[in-house]
Amino acid sequence: MRDTARDSQPKNTIVTPLEEEIPTDMSNSKARFPLSWQAIFTGALFLFMYLPILVLMFYSFNQSAYSAGWEGFTLEWYRRLFADDRIGKALFNSVKVAGLAVAVSAVLGTLMAVGLSRYEFRGKKLYQGISYLPLIIPDIAISVATLVFLAAVGISLSIWTIVAAHIVFCLAYIALAVSTRLADLDSNLEEAALDLGATPVEAFLKVLLPQLMPGIASGCLIAFVLSMDDLLISSFTAGAGATTLPMEIFSRIRTGVKPDVNALSVILIGASGILAFVAENLRYRSEQQ
Amino acid sequence: MSVSTKHQPPSNNFGPQGDSGNPRFGSRWLGPLALLGPAGVWLIFLLVLPTLVIFEISLVPNIKPGGIVNPSGLDNYFLAFQGVYIMVVLRSLFLAIGSTLLCLLLGFPVAYWLAILAPQRWRNLMLMSFILPLWTSSLLRSYAWITILRPTGVLNSVLGFVGLPGLELLNRPPAVLIGMTYSFLPYMVLILYSSLEKLDRQLLEASADLGATPPETFWKVTVPQALPGIAAGSLLVFITSLGDFVDPELLGGASSGTAARLIYDRFLGQTQNWGFGAALSMLLIMAVSIAIALLLKYGDRDAQP
């Protein structure tokens, strides 16, 4: 039995594409949408996933945000939102932090991923382990550590300390995306460039980097979204006046439902929908190559 | 600071990995240093040293900002296992385990349907739309549940409409459980999907041919093959919900303090006690490390059926 499992592993790739024509499963109706209980269950959970988003949309246009029923259509909350400069300022801070952190991480993370794939050295496992630690350690622990360290060495908090702290986790996500891309690249191209007389720097910039671009781009996108979304690390490392958007939202909704936050949610959800679409497009295109 | 030499690629024992073994790099260590140095320095200053510093601070009882650091023992750690705090630690574990089980229970049929039963050409699109909410603000998604779960909220309006008594969930642990399950379900589905997608369909077929009933095939063929995915997905949900701050804070009310909220309050709240907060953070890091060590130890064994 064991051997069959192992032997049939490569065949698996052949079986899958055929599957549309030849149903291989126990269920007979595979060509059309089969109405199994799993299908109904999945449908219900789709509703579950989108319910909160629909609810926010509904209430952002509702005249009375505090009652459960529909009290009539209004754009009042959106008007109030756009008149609120604290939101605008917080959004600006967030974009600034995310933009800077991602820009620095894109360079450091790409170099790191290339370095890790290219060299063997003592302590490589340790280096690798540490670099992916931010993906695993809870945000709250990273926040606390960064705050205590900054206090211990006497660096005063500002918007720059947020950027510095965000680079740590942005780095990990970008390096991860670049490593994945590196794993299925043809390393012969770079070698050929070197053989043809390119300097290592030229070979890196002109041959390797363009090939890595889809990985870098999708890593940057994820890092940007996560940086924009971060509440804890920003809260712990922000100096006076460096309020980011999640911090501003958090301070408002801590005390309950706020109708203008509903309106803000709808706008942000729209924006992230567009980002997700761009990201998927990038991924799709890089797979086509 | 002596740690800072650690990242430097050692000059000994350095051999380029076959493919790009070009001797044209100026000297043997220039390449590695240029590629790995900048990120290494950053990680040492903003991740490694900070973690060492909170470990040091965690040994100081009753420290406040500006206080004198005088490490004197494990009192802060003992405190975490006393009185009210042990309740908080246990509640955090309960919520993390609960949301992991809920995610597994809800996520498995979805991943199974998406990976095996759904029409091939729709699979990717449907998986993508299922995890799409991950792209939106986690804070706002949890916030939306306030509107749904509050006493006069959406859920109770619907229940009232069909003639059922209302539920009081908000500001109680069940609301936190719902919020966490909602927040982390997409991760679980994503990981289970990639594990089920690789499932050897010929084995399912063979099992059916040999006379196994569908439940038998499911428990004896499908589940064992999906076990690494189940373990990885559960671990991810467990560690993320163990450190989650937003869901307990927004949905849990005063009755559902968790470790993350306790840490937050010891640093940014009214009852500041950096040493205790640091000790709790260390405990959180240790709990996560233990979970990962368990996965690495038993996960590998599961990978070879």
TrEMBL record, chain A:
Transmembrane annotation, as ranges: 39-61, 97-117, 129-153, 159-182, 261-279
Entries under CDD domains matching the protein: TM_PBP2
Any one biological process term the GO annotation gives: transmembrane transport
Keyword Transmembrane helix set for record: yes
The ABC transmembrane type-1 domain, residue ranges: 91-279
Pfam families: BPD_transp_1
Entries under InterPro entries matching the protein: Bact_Polyamine_Transport (IPR051789), MetI-like (IPR000515), MetI-like_sf (IPR035906)
Membrane topology annotation: Multi-pass membrane protein
Cellular localisation: Cell membrane
Gene3D superfamilies recorded: MetI-like (1.10.3720.10)
Keyword Translocase: no
Alphabetical keyword list: Cell membrane, Membrane, Transmembrane, Transmembrane helix, Transport
GO cellular component: plasma membrane
PROSITE patterns (alphabetical): ABC_TM1 (PS50928)
Sequence similarity: Belongs to the binding-protein-dependent transport system permease family. CysTW subfamily.
PANTHER family: PUTRESCINE TRANSPORT SYSTEM PERMEASE PROTEIN POTI
Protein name according to UniProt: ABC transporter permease
Organism: Zarconia navalis LEGE 11467
From TrEMBL, chain B:
TM regions (residue ranges): 33-57, 77-94, 101-122, 176-196, 274-296
Protein name: ABC transporter permease
Annotated Polar residues bias: 1-15
Pfam families: BPD_transp_1
SUPFAM superfamilies: MetI-like
Renumbered residue ranges of the record's region Disordered: 1-20
Keywords for this protein: Cell membrane, Membrane, Transmembrane, Transmembrane helix, Transport
Record bears the keyword Kinase: no
Domain ABC transmembrane type-1: residue ranges: 89-295
Family under the similarity heading: Belongs to the binding-protein-dependent transport system permease family. CysTW subfamily.
Entry superkingdom: Bacteria
UniProt GO cellular component terms: plasma membrane
Localization: Cell membrane
Example GO biological process: transmembrane transport
InterPro entries the record matches: MetI-like (IPR000515), MetI-like_sf (IPR035906)
Protein topology in the membrane: Multi-pass membrane protein
